[in-house]
Specification:
single chain; mainly alpha; two-stranded antiparallel ribbon
């Protein structure tokens, strides 16, 4: 993924919003070949969180 594209910024915001901090996201992830792999989240759960946060 390229850095600072609209898609990567939105993904970063979702990850940060989900975990509350980058430190928490790193702790929840696995490091493989120099890349942090964050556990997948159910899109419906993510959408519910986003809707609740903006309501």
């Amino acid at each position: 993924m390229r850095v600072n594209t609209e898609e990567s910024i939105k993904l970063g915001e979702r990850i940060h919003g989900r975990f509350g901090s980058w430190e928490a996201a790193r702790k929840a992830s696995r490091l493989r070949n120099g890349v942090y792999l964050v556990p997948a989240d159910d899109d419906k759960q993510e959408q519910k969180r986003h809707t609740a946060a903006t309501a």
